[in-house]
Amino acid sequence: MNTDEFKRREVSRRQFLGRSAQQAAGVAVGVVGLSGVAAASAKSAESPNERLGIGVIGVRNQGRLIANELAQISGIEIRSLCDVDESQFAPAIREVVDAGQKPPTTVRDFRHLLDDPAIDAVVIATPDHWHAPMATLACQAGKDIYLESPATHSLTEDAALIDAANRTQRIVQVGLQQRSGSHFQSAIQFLRSGKLGNVRFAKAWIVHRRKSIGRRAVVEAPAHVDYAAWLGPAAARPFQPNRFHFNWRWFWEYGGGELAHWGVHMLDVARWGLQVETPVRVSSVGGKYSFDDDQETPDSLTVQYDFGGKSILWEQRLWSSHGVEGRSSGVAFHGDQGTLVVDRGGWKVYDHGEVIAADASDLLKTHLTNFTDCIRTRRTPAADLSTGIASGALCHWGNTAYRAGHEILIGKSNLT
Q1: Quick check: 193 pLDDT over 50?
Q2: What is the pTM of this model?
Q3: Among 90, 92, 182, 300, fewest CB within 10 Å belongs to which?
């Protein structure tokens, strides 16, 4: 990309944002045309049996999967798809149509979805750096939100997003689908029964072999991609393919590495089971032990979370196939009368007087159904924003400690 072209796109990017990156999460309501929060709330209260119009923002991977699942839920209409990459529309439309719905409209600017009065809720399945700014604007536009995890990209975004959701009384379901899975729920119930005795330690992990992303040179952004819009609140830089589709999560400007990718899910289960909220201190050790490539985030990491009387240990190895407890990912709760290990395939108790286990249950469809039900009833969803913020914060603290190179102290013990 030549200098003139880069400057032109940077001007476009700044016009798109309207404000600086630091202020992105608090963009004024006037940036988008609104039908009014009160009107949106009234619509939800007065017409609980009407079909809900859904717009999906980001349709390459998880967003396309969510669109397909939502399209199969009774009373839901996928009305519009949004992506900055036009090449993603055709396969996403095909899946929605195959699910029995009419072809949704497509837009490249998410603000069109927020301006559309026929859309009751939006799915935000974008790179992490867009989550909080986009969700804030969606709240201000009166839309309920299904927000992929982690809910925010940094600790500094948490309070403003919670305030926006509370002030506008929006339903926000964070994509921590384990909260809706019946086998995860039964595992937590077993922990609360006291049959494992005193449970004060949990270990969560992900161990698998990821491929190196290699090294890529700066090139011209593809013509079918609105790269300025993709950057959004992130710093301006020329297009580099390794920082784009999927691999963006391995760069600090856009994601939080494996800790924010898989870690948020398993740490949420660990926090849920131990009934803890904010750690007292966090220490983190790791690095790029295996990959020699463009990615910035560690391929090996251990994080210790001290809650004052209870603790959680996170472990990731992205170059190994020998998992923990015979599982590539999961959570182990260790009590003085036994150990419970749970993953997406089920759960089992070890070192106990009786054999106790449960098989896998549906996660995503159940989680999405819970979300759409809560839009109609205005009940709190299974993984509400406060839950998503608390679990995402564990990832942010772990990454902060890793990047700082020393233990960080947070606050007093607050076991829930």
Answers
A1: yes
A2: 0.90
A3: 90
